[in-house]
Amino acid sequence: MLTPVLLPLAGGTIALIVSIVHWRRVAWAVVLTAIFAAAVVMGLNAAQASAHALSSAPGTVIQVAGGWSERAGIVIVMDTAGVVLGPVVLIVAFLILLTAAGQRQFGSVFAGVAAITVAAMTGVILSGDLFNLFVFFEALSLGAVILIAWERRGPALYAALRYLVVGTVSIAFYLIGLLLVYRSTGELAIHRIIPILAGSEVTRGTTVGLGCMLAAVATRGAILPFHGWLPAAHGEAPAPVSALLSGLMLKSALVALWRISTIVRVAAPQLLETLLVLGALSAVAGAFAAALESDAKRVLAFSSISQMGYLVTALAVGAREAMLYHAVGHALFKSTLFLVIGAAVSRAGSHQLSEIGRVNRRDGYPWIEGPVLLIGALAVAGAPGFSGFAGKQLIGAALYSSPAAYLALRIAALGTVTATMRLLLVYGNGRPRFSGAPMTTTAALAALAAAILWHGGQHLHLVSPAATVEFLIILGVAAAMVALSRIPRFWQFVTTPGRIRPGMDAVIVSVLAGIILLIR
Amino acid sequence: MSFLPEGLRWYLAGAIFLVGLGGIFTNRRAVGKVIALNILNSALVLFFILLGSSAGDSAPILFRGDEAAVDPLVQALMLTAIVVGVCVTALLLVLIQRLYDATGTTDVDEIERILNERRH
Fold it and tell me: B6-119: what fold?
């Protein structure tokens, strides 16, 4: 079951060796083949596991790597989250890297590091062991940092540095949590910890430990007080890297959060209430921050925070199916949007929406970007019939016991639609151009768009006249807000960025983690 | 360490942890932050080693059979954590060098100011 991790890892290693002689094409071919093969193996494993899931109740296949005993070995797990997200992550990673392979600035070293990052993501998704999660998380952030800083521009380097520092501090708290949990249970495998904690009195130390772990993984998932690193990191990275980070890396954090939440649910369910509140806050704040942002890639980055908020509220109430459906949806449409907008940003040489719009008008844009952006935008905005809509309906239905969170998510939809509309307007006056785009990019974007449409079609039965009317009303209000934004003076007043103190997010990470958890 | 009472050891390790944490937040120089991160990591390793030694304190190799061995699992974990820490440190130092090349300083406030100026 470890093959989907080992294949990209081997591919990445070969690409790095090949980079010595600058065989760019060979490196990319090896990496893409390895990731594709990993996706196939993962798909087969998933099919096998879901067949297994039908026969036994928990629906989880557990294996120990290297044939060690369960006490000493590393537990690999294939549960519903892995079955759904594992193959999706690998396939989308393949498509994203396919677009990168067509661009000259991404050489064989990039291919190698990207493959290792993908291997680490898969590793996180397959880990059933708390310490192993830490190792893969660290491998993941090392790879991600190299990719973020790839273009060696100042802001990207600084974003990467900040990401790595925040990540390391958060992971220190994760290890403290691990220590406390290990001290009280003597186990690291999640499926062995759950019965121990369920069958005994849970001490205060264990609760604090679980809280630390949740907070640390929430930092990786950019949930509200711990989100400071994300807009810079996702906004400054090259386009394919932003797509990898936003579409897929956040999903691996989500899977880890889900696994830890299965322990928390039996040991300290009050922590999940905190998580619900934080998730709802992220959903609203992220959406409106996206609506106010003028940097095209940061619009998408803030929107990712919002979508992670949706996913975490679903996770907090235990709505696994809704969470996984929306997670797949988000992986597809956010990767697509980042690829399209990222390409537009690098054509324009500027992150500003207005400047991109100007360049699109002057030079035109590759024709494929138009329809693909439209499909992605409709999906993220939650237009009836698309995956974002179904995901939000499913999550909303799961929130019947917490009307405040439900309301928050409804309000967040307004922010998301406004942000999406501003992105679409960038292409409003542009003209499509039918030459110049590499074949691979066109094919990958078309495949992603098709996947979004197919995924939305899974839940067409949720479309109802009432929901459609609601969407149209939101659309109307959003249009009014965008119109208002064209009055420049007002907009400047709203969006003047406050100077953010360096390291502030790291302070917030630890202080809030401490305070929230000790009060509990 | 056996001359120190059990509780005191934990407090000392905790103090080292806080020194590291404080260093990350208060130090304006990027290299200082890296050193603080390493102190933080060392404190974590100490925590785990202390936890392992509560099971016993002789090495889990060449057993006579009657001694209480340390918990070998935490030691294995910490070997991994130390290796990961070295990788993170190396990468951080490379990033700082690149930032220095781009901005001419390793002062975090200064870097932020320069980058903000270039943006506007």
Answer: Helix Hairpins (1.10.287)
